Request: fold
Amino acid sequence: MNNTWWVPGGPIFFYTGNEGVIEAFAENSGFMWDIAPEFNALLIFAEHRYYGESLPFNGNYSKDPHKLGYLSSEEALADFAELISFLKATIPGADKSPVIAFGGSYGGMLAAWFRMKYPNICAGAIAASAPVAQFTSPCDAFGRIVTSDFTAAAPNGTCSQTIRSSWAALDRVADKANNTGLDWLNSKWKLCTPLTSKSNMTGLKDYLSNLWTNLAMMDYPYPTTFLAPLPGNPVNAACSKMLGNYSTDEELLSHIYSGVSVYSNYTGQSTCLNIAEEDNIGADMWYYQACSEMVMPFCYDGVNDMFESKGWDLEQFSKDCKETWGVEPRPNMANLIYGGRDVSSASNIIFSNGLLDPWSSGSILKSYGSIVSIKIPEGAHHLDLRGSNPLDPVSVVSARKMERKYIRKWIKQSNAVEKSRRYNFNKS
Amino acid sequence: MNNTWWVPGGPIFFYTGNEGVIEAFAENSGFMWDIAPEFNALLIFAEHRYYGESLPFNGNYSKDPHKLGYLSSEEALADFAELISFLKATIPGADKSPVIAFGGSYGGMLAAWFRMKYPNICAGAIAASAPVAQFTSPCDAFGRIVTSDFTAAAPNGTCSQTIRSSWAALDRVADKANNTGLDWLNSKWKLCTPLTSKSNMTGLKDYLSNLWTNLAMMDYPYPTTFLAPLPGNPVNAACSKMLGNYSTDEELLSHIYSGVSVYSNYTGQSTCLNIAEEDNIGADMWYYQACSEMVMPFCYDGVNDMFESKGWDLEQFSKDCKETWGVEPRPNMANLIYGGRDVSSASNIIFSNGLLDPWSSGSILKSYGSIVSIKIPEGAHHLDLRGSNPLDPVSVVSARKMERKYIRKWIKQSNAVEKSRRYNFNKS
Reply:
């Protein structure tokens, strides 16, 4: 909570916390801080249950569905409703304050859904890079967007082509007799945990796929420290390290390693490459959510995208979830509860999307009534939620301007409804 | 399910079952059956979990919160969503069918909330006599409406005055020495379980309060058999039995007994008056719901209403709930989740209310945008949901006409959205 700019009666700007420690989102949502003075707003960042310090059962779930079962988006939304009700009852001057929800990514989904399911509590929502339709989006769109970011970052698409070629190169190196290839890789890539057989390659490839994806998501025009410390325009930075020609697999993989280091070791402080390293935000429990109600299909073909070809295999996915968490995924649940792309009956939500961001494929890219879609061509993952920066592209500056305009409108609407309610109450 | 009039592609008329066996609602919702042919509609009546035959844990809850905790309106709504998803996936020609929700009383609340929370699944709702704001409605309004029905049913308000006088008369009779008063009452009123001390009087008074209330709710213009077998205009029928003058408490209570018999023994088949008798619909588990999330405050003053004076005592209520069910009531929960009277962000719901019905005090009596409030001055509890009858007042005939008009509109809207979705899908 921050009440530096709060004036009693002013609005509450409420961040619907996503999968991670709430500080990570508070520190990377400068937009809310930037505009709080102009709106006399109270800032609240609400941590999502099962993340950060908000751990039921003392954080010990033992993969027990009877304990994990309370981790769901619906319960999180109900937490937010309860919290707001508590704040309004206890903070002097907040009882009639309009609440505007803000969130990015899964937090943006929660912001949108909070407005949809609790319009009595939330006057409007800024849902930045919120892939509410990722559950039914074509599974291949995501990888294609990541790829196009890398394609654009070097002449003739050489950067994405280099990455595309790396998967087979890794296999060939791993196949070399007497582990000579793996030994070379362990040493050249400074792997913290050396690979000892070709079967270890899956973990490395998963790590790489996530890394390229994260680079695309975090492709901000200035240095940031969200999922990892990164330079500005990190996709360009990584691609510029992978430019040179190569004639052997080892040369190719040396380029790749240079690109990887932009993400894995931008600070220069890592002594080895840890492919088991978590992101900065503490999102471990997300894998349970993805295994229960937030089932998002992804697939890659290696032709239209730069990833290793991999279909979406719900059966295998379910088997893995059962094994890891003891739960059966419910792939249709999120759409059933929230409606996916069908937001035609909702109101007062801005869905903003940076078009560099692969998650834009699962978001709302069309406006309907008071559902407003804002596209930010030069934007990565919820760039608009970040604080203002001299390096911001014009598109995000005008997106934020539009968002402020709508926030002002929603607050006015909400105050009018509140006023008419008081009037009617006094009459009766 | 009834598919007599179903034409594939036509709408699904979905009754959101309330607290009772679903047959009771199917048999008392003739409106849906009457209009199904005109709309080529499929009729579905969905039973609410924990009622009728829809009993988890084999119907054995042992007042155990770990078993009872799954009984809630939210879970019921999710059941409906799942059921519809299943029906659409399995009934040929139903996959794109617009769903219109219907319900009366708590079922009407569920119909309205279903549209509010699942607009992706439900195109519109007929919420008949749905007291969605009963949780914060002034607690005394309910009793005053019951009273005004009885006041209007006899000249000079003598009927409600007789009832108002009966509470003290019962006390005086119970106070008579050597139980002579109670003996007289046991014999005159043919009580199945004779009263043996004045403390038994509370149960008898509760029975009577409910009975007068039920008579007002069921004040239909023709004979019905919903909560109990009743003549047409049962409030008038009861009052006409209580018309005569009286000069003693015994005379007064004899009149009262004649009025009571209109409800308790309209068929003439009861040999004694059973004050422990349940309603016809099997609503026992409602008391758990009222003790957890559906906390409805009622109070009476005995001056502006005809009931014995009794304030709303949340503390005592909570104590009783704790004792009976092991749960602590959450009096603000329903409003928090559903918004109470604030339906300003919802759409496509008709709230219809008979003004003879005490529950109208907790419903929506004002229209907002596509939230339409219909008042039926001569109507009792969800009269409009009943089948057409030659004795119907004009007001209910025109209410049903309006409802049909809106249902047609919502179906058209829903088909248009579905069509544009298909079009966009084919384009992309």
